Amino acid sequence: MEGIKTRSKARKEETTLDKRVNGHVHFEEAETLRDLDTEENIFIFWPNLIGYFRIVLALASLYYMPLHPRTCSALYTVSCLLDALDGYAARYFEQSTQFGGVLDMVTDRCTTTCLLVFLSQAWPRWSLVFQALISLDLASHYMHMFATLTMAGKGQSHKKVASSRSRVLNLYYTNKQTVLFTFCAFNELFWISLYLLSFSSPTLSPSLLQPPGETLRSAQPGSPAHPTLSKLFPNPYSAGALELARANKIDSKWPWILAGISVIVMLGKQFINVVQLVNASRWLAEGDRAARRKAGLPRKKKA
What does pTM read for this prediction? Predict the structure, then answer.
């Protein structure tokens, strides 16, 4: 009898100890569960660290952007090329995360937008075009991301597009190593080419640039016929002063060649942005129609 009580007491103690660990899990499994329950620090994953470094390079390129084309172009280009490396790192280390995907997309949108803002100042006659391209880029990606999260589910990646929904977007996002990288790389190459041309071509504002040996003429009535640059542009950070400072800093041959090579792909990228915007709009409209049918809308009017 006493032996039965001892065994019963031992079972109760074992059950109590098991529950203290994790429900009805035994001690030998506790260490494994403790390892599985350890919270990972998503913010220090390798692809995200590469993303932070991209942001640092992009900020540095913006600092040099007004007057140092070579340094700016080098920093900006490296930042763009690392966009391919962080995706490779995510697959290699099995560290693909939603935060990393959003960080990557936001970095791309912000860097491109900042460059187009500069181009709208450097090429003021085309500022409306640059503003339209910025709006298209931001709107298409935001609506595509929102439609994916709303209609496809919380864990669905915006880069997974069924061919039944859009063959163009399916081809664009599925072939990441070829199609996606090519379009993004040549799109950025075109903008960098225009950026470099703003430092080399006198076709921006010919009135600011005179042939060698001639002095600048004043456009202000009553001003001296041959004013000094400090009088012509009292503010060294004004658009005219910066344009004059950029003039003829580099040769225009290679920027024109690069622009000619990449312009077709750049236009293709804008076409994809339009397709992405239209596709996302239709997808959201499908969801709205389904939600209205479920709610019994539109209500039938009483006779």
Answer: 0.77
